[in-house]
């Protein structure tokens, strides 16, 4: 059986790792062993933070909705409850965009929610 020299394969693998670690600080971008460790860690961070990003944006949307709703004299929890009662099926992302960009439309939505919440206790009595 013929001998196989693997210099080309190893060089290609090392080059791939070093290309991916191009922006790292110090030897993390030039030394293969250190670059490989830093690259693996960076990929772990990237995987984790792709999920955390969704969490953080949802929190931002809720904060924006809460701020806009409090200007109208309600709390966030009352508003969300009223949305469900009024069968308004807008998600938090869209509500946040409306509250941030178009205050008049958001005020109209809040008034609809208030009307439904005011009518609900009368119907129960």
Automatic annotation (TrEMBL):
A GO cellular component annotation in the UniProt record: ribosome
Keyword Cytoplasm (UniProt): no
Keyword Ribosomal protein among UniProt keywords: yes
Keywords per UniProt: Ribonucleoprotein, Ribosomal protein, RNA-binding, rRNA-binding
GO biological process: ribosomal large subunit assembly; translation
Gene3D superfamilies per the UniProt record, alphabetical: 6.10.160.10, Ribosomal protein L20
One GO molecular-function entry: rRNA binding
PROSITE patterns cross-referenced by the UniProt entry: RIBOSOMAL_L20
InterPro entries according to UniProt: Ribosomal_bL20, RIBOSOMAL_L20_CS, Ribosomal_protein_bL20_C
Annotated PANTHER family: 39S RIBOSOMAL PROTEIN L20
Entry similarity comment: Belongs to the bacterial ribosomal protein bL20 family.
NCBIfam families xrefs: rplT_bact
Protein function: Binds directly to 23S ribosomal RNA and is necessary for the in vitro assembly process of the 50S ribosomal subunit. It is not involved in the protein synthesizing functions of that subunit.
The protein's name: Large ribosomal subunit protein bL20
Organism field: Acidisoma silvae
């Amino acid at each position: 059986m013929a001998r196989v020299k693997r210099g080309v394969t190893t060089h290609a693998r090392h080059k791939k790792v070093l290309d991916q670690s191009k922006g790292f600080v110090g030897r993390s971008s030039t030394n293969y062993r250190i670059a490989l460790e830093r690259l693996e860690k960076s990929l772990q961070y990237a995987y984790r933070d792709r999920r955390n990003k969704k969490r953080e944006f949802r929190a931002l949307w809720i904060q924006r909705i809460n701020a806009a709703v409090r200007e109208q004299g309600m709390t966030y929890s009352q508003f969300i409850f009223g949305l469900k009662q009024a069968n308004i099926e807008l998600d938090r992302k869209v509500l946040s965009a409306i509250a941030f960009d178009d205050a008049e439309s958001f005020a109209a939505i809040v008034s609809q929610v208030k009307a439904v919440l005011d009518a609900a206790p009368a119907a129960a009595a």
